[in-house]
């Protein structure tokens, strides 16, 4: 194949055109991408598309099954919950919450983790040892448990939830970036930049980081899925998104008391989480295959 | 040898960081005296309580004393029932071990089997199905899967109990739920690791000299493919214990996770500290063992 491989660091950066042309050969990335765009569009446009208020309690129309079941209400396509709130509206607004939490968390934990990884890998020595030990320590806490404790200590609320998730999710970024930086450190282009007197910060973010972008992208999609699942789990346990804000985990938390008669309450938000994480994971898989010359050449 | 020593020193450092975090998180930010005294307490009550609990001493001194006692298994007493923390935790350990162990065994056997089959029959239906299962499995929230399993097997079919503990029937659904996160990871890793190894020259050589396919798979390929699998399983133990927290809550399984969630909600600081430190420490020990195991299996790591 004549095209350039992104994963070998010394080559020139790939042209965006060839990237998208390649993308077509990886249906999973394409399918995932289309799914994600659809999810984003529907949740972001929720207030415009559906007039329903996710908080509005309609006691006369409570515990309605989805409209295609007997006893369903055409005004509530996916039924209503125990206090008569519209499930569809709550799923869409809940999606905004969950996507926002996961997106911001990955952005923050990614930035922090990448910086730590670059420093550890490039500076080496004692600094590397301590950062690695810190990564190891964070990794040793059962993630959900640590996040639960942090939220409990700091108090419930979105900012604290995001902080807890960032603290528990930066380590994979740092670990990956560190090990790849160690491999890149001795390369000529880094030596050249160093010899020309480029400041360390410039070497880290201008010379090293662009070479790592592809693997960072793969791990970021992976972490997005993880964080979304963790956030949902925390909300499910009652220590994530506060109950007054609709969220998928929070909806499941309420649904578990109605498993007997109102199964749809538990099914619908779970499907929403599943489809969202699936779309992001498919994108990640596609990217991984695309960027892995070993698989690509087969 | 130096490899072993280095890893041991790092493990000790990590344990120190863990203990400091556990202590700091809960004593540094929250005032246990206030929780213990309750909402009706006067300022005087709280002052008196702080005195008896030793909370007026400087934090490093408190930490030192706490750590000293913790090393002997003494994490203080529950703020609510006044029972020693260790006595509250101990009966729970067995349940969490039972659950995580059975989930680990299920994920490992099924994950290795499917991963090896998928790698040997690349592109066949078993490869496609295993990959689809893995992709789906990684996207399913495990607590939601738990709820769905309850609806299907306990509520609709009535084959298995909804929740609680007792006979082996109680263990089935929680095990499936907890294993669902780890299984795809092991399966995919086994597949890619095996594919890596199967294309190596020594595998071709083994085949060329007439070694049976079974021998090639097990002795030449799997043994070399095992290395990254051991590493990742070691790294996943933390996630597994975290998953147990959620799974135990779904199924009211009386393990450490359920106790942790209860105690966190109540604000029972000493119990939370005990559980967090105990689980984190077991992750450290598990990781250390998996690293040493790799050093044993693969001499390249020891000297590399």
Automatic annotation (TrEMBL), chain A:
Taken from the record, one Pfam family name reads BPD_transp_1
Gene Ontology cellular-component terms for this entry are: plasma membrane
Mostly located where?
membrane
Which keywords are on file for this protein? Cell membrane, Membrane, Transmembrane, Transmembrane helix, Transport
InterPro entries recorded for this chain?
BP-dependent_transpt_permease, MetI-like, MetI-like_sf, OppC_N
Q: Identify the SUPFAM superfamilies for this entry.
A: MetI-like
- What family is it from? Belongs to the binding-protein-dependent transport system permease family.
> What is the protein name for this chain?
Dipeptide transport system permease protein DppC
Native organism is Deinococcus marmoris
Automatic annotation (TrEMBL), chain B:
In terms of superkingdom, the source organism counts as Bacteria
| GO biological process, alphabetically ordered | transmembrane transport
Write down the PANTHER family for this protein, in alphabetical order: DIPEPTIDE TRANSPORT SYSTEM PERMEASE PROTEIN DPPB-RELATED (PTHR43163:SF6)
Q: Outline the extent of the ABC transmembrane type-1 domain.
A: 93-294
Residue ranges of the TM segments? 12-29, 95-116, 128-155, 167-186, 229-251, 271-297
Q: GO terms for CC?
A: plasma membrane
Record's family? Belongs to the binding-protein-dependent transport system permease family.
- Its recorded name reads Peptide ABC transporter, permease protein
Keywords in alphabetical order, please: Cell membrane, Membrane, Transmembrane, Transmembrane helix, Transport
Task: Report the main location listed first in the record.
Answer: membrane
Subcellular localization: Cell membrane
Q: How does it sit in the membrane?
A: Multi-pass membrane protein
Instruction: Enumerate the CDD domains for this protein.
Output: TM_PBP2
- InterPro entries (alphabetical): BPD_transp_1_N (IPR045621), MetI-like (IPR000515), MetI-like_sf (IPR035906)
Q: What Gene3D superfamilies is this protein classified in?
A: MetI-like
Q: Does the keyword Glycoprotein apply?
A: no
Record keywords: Nucleotidyltransferase included? no
